[in-house]
Amino acid sequence: MTIPADIENTPPRRQAWWRALMRDPSAAVSMIVLALFVLGAVLAPLIAPHDPFEGTRSVMQPPVWAERGDWTYILGTDGQGRDILSRLLYGTRLTLLIGLLSVGIGGFIGSFLGLLSAFYPRLSPFVMRFADVMLSFPAILLGLALVAIFGPGALPVIIALSIATVPDSARIARSIALSVMQQEYIEAGRAIGLSDTAVFTRYLVRNSISAIMIFMSLRFGQIILIGAALSFLGLGARPPAAELGMMASQGRDFILFAPHIAFIPSLTIFIIVLAANITGDALRDVLDPRMRS
Amino acid sequence: MIDTAVRRLLQSIPVLIGVLILGFLLIQLSPGDPARVFAGAMAPPEVVEQIREQMGLDRPMLVQFWAYLERVLQGDLGRSFISNKTVASELGAAIVPTLELMFACLVWSIPLGIAMGTLGAVWRGSFLDRAIMAFSVAGVSLPIFFICLLLIQLLGVKWQLFPFIGRGGPLWTLEGLRHIALPALSLGLIFIGPVARMTRSSVLEVLKLDHVRTARSKGLKERRVIIKHALRNALLPVITLVGLQAGYLLGGAVVTETIFSYPGIGRLSVGAILSADYPLAQGCILVLALAFIIINMIVDMLYALLDPRVQGK
């Protein structure tokens, strides 16, 4: 059997969208920025110049570019004399972890439900009604309720944000999976006598997964913002841990004399979320040409 | 339209039940005696006894839940641990300030967002369009507390234009307006982005449609075509957006009220949760959820009212 020329010459799909993505300068820059932050977060214990939790006597040191700044504390110190750069690295770690876990857990459960309801259409109405009900419950409210029940902490926040991610991912996974189900290879798989489980895992999941992951990345920025807001309010991560929203909130008391303590972590969240949003938008444009502007 | 209202009402029942279960759990899980929780810290023992009997704490959970429902539906939400006032009166005092903040935020951000989105769509691809889109992406990426802190630092401390603590009085007084300026500005800034993006894509869709081409070929002025024929039809999705983004706005309000010490429901709930004031926290969550359901219902009904295609369904 000969392979038609046009199929042979088409690059694999993954490479095609990767290249299209890299052609967009803002998307490329955003992905590099994101990668740098992830790297800094992962390597925090190795590269942090000071202990992020231990206070010193040099309280409220300005960053190096300010008048009284020096190179010992590049980003200055906070109200307790802790090195802001070190805390920033650790804080990014926790902020990213809360976001990743929430999107990961919620996205996994939601996608599974969505895929299942596309595979067994009889399940569909139940899953979709369930998603409708859940969708009408805002994440922040769920967060407030769970924190009220279990007390402040990173765990209730992760649980709340995971639950809030389920309905969206279920809908998106279902719509992606429905179009995969139309493909001939699904029928072919059935025709050669594969079991439901095999068709589901080998054909449906594998062919839907990359599109689902991309939609999850769009969700990531919003989840990070809600998690940081809850920590800012004192409802999320607890001291002595460092978290970006919490750092901003601790800097609030010094906004008159040392605004950098609150502004540096806030700016960090902004850059991370902005990079995530631009990357997500670019990915969607590449994957879904109808929405390309 | 009545159909929509009824359907929406039925759809919100599971959510309401879920919220009530959460409220019930909050009271049940609170450390100590639920009867004491409901009676308030200062209540005399005989009142606590009476409430214990009323709540039927020795009876099965379901019966207790039913009793809880009956009380809540009668507006009895218990008493605050901290202030010993009834939760209903605390909530009542906080609702008006929050509604004022919402109004003061939406009244400028929605028109501005619509204007920006329309300009972007009309001059699609221009420098202005790109600037507007960059502004909206930045807007949805900004942590709300960052905006609040920046505005406090700049307009409050440096230029001393506006006060940044508390509420100055009702919205129609000068002090009220001066105090609400910074919170409303902060909250509005995160809302412009989504509105502008939605308006832009919606206007772009409508501009492609036949009736716009007809209007143009009739020789109508471009401005008239855009405003009367395109924008009018493009605004429908923007209305839905307000409903979809109600949760986003709610989260923003909770943070904004807390930072500006603005005495609304958001600040009340954060305070209640942080001080483990379970009855008050329960009341706040019930009210916030109810508000959310009502907003979505109003949006759906508005949509049905404005879009004749929905009515037939």
Characterise this structure.
The complex is a heterodimer of chains A (293) and B (313). Chain A is mainly α and 293 residues long. Chain A has a single domain (43-292), classed as MetI-like fold. Helices cover 71% and strands 0% of the residues of chain A. In chain A, helix 7 (139-150) packs antiparallel against helix 8 (154-181). The radius of gyration of chain A is 23 Å and the shape is elongated. Chain B is mainly alpha-helical. Chain B folds into two domains: 2-73, no CATH class; 87-310, MetI-like fold, CATH 1.10.3720. In chain B, 79% of the residues lie in helices and 0% in strands. Chain B has 14 helices and no strands. In chain B, helix 12 (265-274) runs antiparallel to helix 13. The longest helix of chain B has 36 residues, at 87-122. Chain B is globular and about 80 Å long. The model of chain B has no long low-confidence stretch (mean pLDDT 84). At the A-B interface, helix 7, helix 10, helix 11 and helix 12 of A face helix 1, helix 6, helix 7, helix 11 and helix 12 of B.
List the helices and strands and how they pair.
The complex is a heterodimer of chains A (293) and B (313).
Chain A: H1 5-9, H2 13-23, H3 25-42, H4 44-47, H5 84-119, H6 124-135, H7 139-150, H8 154-181, H9 184-191, H10 196-232, H11 244-251, H12 260-287
Chain B: H1 2-29, H2 34-39, H3 45-55, H4 61-73, H5 87-122, H6 127-141, H7 144-158, H8 174-207, H9 210-217, H10 222-244, H11 246-259, H12 265-274, H13 278-306, H14 308-312
Helix pairs in contact in B: 1-13, 5-6, 5-8, 5-13, 6-8, 7-8, 7-11, 8-10, 8-11, 9-10, 10-13, 11-12, 12-13
CATH topology of the largest domain in chain B: MetI-like fold
Instruction: List the uncertain runs of chain B.
Output: none
Q: How many DSSP E strands of chain B?
A: 0
CATH architecture of the largest domain in chain B: Orthogonal Bundle
Please indicate the count of domains of chain A. Answer: 1
Query: What's the multimeric state?
Result: heterodimer
Question: How many individual helices of chain A?
Answer: 12
Q: CATH homologous superfamily of the largest domain in chain B, by name?
A: MetI-like
- Estimated structural class of chain B: mainly alpha
| Biggest sheet features of chain B | none
Approximate helicity band of chain B? over 70%
Biggest interface, chains and residues, is:
A-B, 45 and 50 residues
CATH topology of chain A: MetI-like fold
Summarize model confidence as the mean pLDDT of chain B: 84
Report how far apart the termini of chain B are. 10 Å
Largest sheet of chain A, if any?
A: none
